[in-house]
Amino acid sequence: MNFRSLDEFWVFYMNQHSKPSTRRWHFIGTLSAIFFFLCSLLFSWWFLFFVPLTGYGFAWYSHFFIEENVPATFAHPFWSLLCDFKMFGLMLTGNMDREIKRLGKRPVLQIF
């Protein structure tokens, strides 16, 4: 699938994250990755090993076992990362439900 803009990709991304538990696992993964990144800056560069392990590990778990789809990271790694941080920010500020409503409907699962 080709996307012309990040906004267009965002709608697809939200379709791939239709279940609240999928989004929660992503939140945990992103928070863990940020934590280990900060630990690498403050203590030892060895903590960098855990950044992708936790960030992608929690997210991919949610896609394979909860959402039952293929992570968008495989086809669109850069846009997926940007959208993951956007979703993290919306969840952190309590605006995720508002964003789902803004999209016009609850995102639905899109299977290849």
From TrEMBL:
Question: What are the TM regions of this chain, as residue ranges?
Answer: 25-58, 78-96
| Pfam families, per database record | Mpo1-like
Q: Which UniProt keywords apply?
A: Membrane, Transmembrane, Transmembrane helix
The answer on whether this UniProt entry bears the keyword Transmembrane helix reads: yes
Nucleotide-binding in keyword set: no
Name of the featured protein: DUF962 domain-containing protein
Species assigned in the record: Cucumis sativus
